[in-house]
Amino acid sequence: MAGQNDIKAAEQTYNGFIGMMKWGTIASLLVGALVVILIA
Known about the structure:
This protein is mainly α. The chain has 1 helix and no strands.
């Protein structure tokens, strides 16, 4: 069985990954919109 410390470390890693994915998606959408505006 995983120890409590292992579970906490995994949760921190997961939360960090989800946060990065969220901000990465927002940044990608903004850059994509900027490119479309510049091309149009």
